[in-house]
Amino acid sequence: MPSPPIGPLARGTPVRDALDGAITAIAAAGCETPRLDAELLLAHTLGISRERLFIDADLVVAGPAVRTFQDFVRRRSVQREPVAYILGRRHFRHLELMVDCRALIPRPETELLVEVALTLPPGSRVLDVGTGSGAVALALKDERPDLHVTGSDLSTDALGLAQSNGERLGLDVRWLCADLFDGVPDGFDAVLSNPPYVRDGARAQLAPEILRHEPPSALFAGADGLDAIRPLIDQVTARSSVRLLALEVGAGQASVVGELMQAAGFPVVRAERDLAGIERVVVGER
Question: How far apart are CA 226 and CA 8, in angstroms?
Fold first, then answer.
């Protein structure tokens, strides 16, 4: 019987060495956060927390984990796949959501929509238009269980992801397949939306992670980025029960969107800034 392997082959690769190699590859690909990316991918590979990578000096990458980690690093560095899609999850507010290429990856600035809606009166009926992964609708229901929350999307694939998230989290949100307000019943008190708002001409400015992997239909909205926002505001005009409308917008779009809201019968309009100081969410009240 042959002797068992000895030396590095038996022990595996020390975590520090595995991380160093991954960081080098991810950085060379032009990714902005190579160390964080490598740590998240390795922790996921080993089924441990990021903190344990540095606390446990005896950790090694061995066996099937070697190939798994190599594949993750290849997807991140060569294909520029977002870390959230590789891991299959993303934190948003107090929730951990399942994410994949069926919907946009939830971003911190979108939390502003939730914060705006937290001030609604008890029992308000809220519609999240273009719900995607369900992030806004689910976070709002989680933090304000008294609200009646519905999430809608034109994409049945995105709705499938949102519904899966809702079932896994045990949050009672209603889901509708709808193009903006077509087929949506009346009676909502507030409408929230993170609609497509990227100008078609801005494609070259987007990172490969976004351009190659996130759904284009959830990103691009015509020459000025308002092709989804204009009809959404127009359709809200006829919904007399809607007293609050909150829309996430792109940099430089807030003033135009605010004017559209005022013209649609929302006399009180304000803009909420994100952590970068950008007017990111436009809120109209009537």
Answer: 58
Query: Which structural domain range is residue 257 located in?
Result: 104-285
What CATH number does residue 38 fall under?
Answer: 1.10.8
Amino acid letter at 244? Answer: L
Q: What are the helix and strand counts (H, E) for the chain?
A: 12, 11
Q: What share of the chain is helix, strand, coil (3-state, %, to 5)?
A: 40, 20, 40
Q: Which CATH number belongs to the domain containing residue 278 in this structure?
A: 3.40.50.150
What digits encode the pLDDT tens for the residues 120-158?
A: 999 999 999 999 999 999 999 999 999 999 999 999 999
Amino acid at 196: P
What separation in angstroms does the CA of 271 have from each of 39, 118, 234, 242, 283?
36, 16, 19, 18, 6
Output DSSP code: residue 108. G
